[in-house]
Amino acid sequence: MPEIAAHLAAHGERARLRLTGHSLGGSLALLVSLMLVARGVVGPEALLPVVTFGAPSVFCGGQRVLDALGVGEGHVRSVAMHRDIVPRAFSCRYPGHAVALLKRLNGVLRNHPCLNNQRMLYTPMGTTYILQPDGAASPPHPFLPEGAALFRLDPEGRAERPARHVVASALRAFLNSPHPLETLSDLSAYGSEGAILRDHESSNYFRALNALTRVPRRRKQPEIVWQLPGVERLQQYWWPGIAGTVFPAAPPVSVRNKELVSEA
């Protein structure tokens, strides 16, 4: 906070702040940025979008917080590795026995609105970017085209339902595959060579993004349409114990390949 105060004092109305972080650091960056606005330390115009990498969600109904503070959905840009367990941990759909266990361990969770209504602890907020590295670094995600890319869910052309609802439906399907319980049940996922560290380590985020910046830029990048899979395909990849929580298929969502540097 002293550094922020010094920056504001030195630059006055021209001062601009961008907070970023990886994993829990990304969650803290989001909380600090919203706290600065809520306390009147800075106005929304002084805050550049927060960019998080592999960060867990920390709000239940966080979109309402963004709307109330007047910063908008574009204030949060969350980058998640295609198979990273951490962004999924609190935002996946928990099976019934997991919900019961959480409520027994912590009585406060018995009245948790997201856990009661959506079987998750926290909901994603802002814009989510899905980072898929080269196949040699990590296997491709079954819902995405093969190859290294940074994807953004884009509901353009889907006027039959509110855009935010379409994106939320697609994001729910993505966050539940692979389901964190599936990853945790695989003993080979642990350790320095396991998938948990491989897909969450900050240095691997850096390598994947750095590789994308070296790809020659095209005047017009190709648009890829991601057709959300139906129930059968979801069940093929989901842990059998939670197959009953599969979401129905949603309308196709346009996915565009973007470079982070051009967005952030």
Q: Tell me, rounded to a whole number, the average pLDDT.
A: 79
Radius of gyration: 19 Å
Biggest sheet features: 7 strands, mixed
Tally the beta strands: 7
Query: How many distinct domains?
Result: 1
What is the global morphology?
Answer: globular
Number of helices, where a helix is a run of at least 4 consecutive DSSP H or I residues = 12
Q: H/E element string?
A: HEHEHEHHHEEHHHHEHEH
Strand order of the largest sheet: 1-2-3-4-5-7-6
Q: Quote the distance from N terminus to C terminus.
A: 23 Å
Helix/strand/pairing class, anyone?
A: alpha/beta
Weakly predicted, low-confidence segments: 156-162, 219-264
Oligomer: single chain
Strand content bin: 5-15%
Helix content: 25-40%
Describe the structure.
The protein has 264 residues and is of the alpha/beta class. It has one domain (51-263). The protein has 12 helices and 7 strands. The protein has helices at residues 2-11, 24-38, 62-69, 86-89, 96-105, 113-118, 163-175, 180-184, 195-198, 202-213, 231-237, 260-263; strands spanning 20-22, 50-53, 76-81, 127-132, 149-154, 223-226, 253-257. A 7-stranded mixed beta sheet has the order 1-2-3-4-5-7-6, with helices on both faces. Helix 3 (62-69) links the parallel strand 2 (50-53) and strand 3. It is globular and about 55 Å long. The model is unreliable at 156-162 and 219-264 (pLDDT under 50).
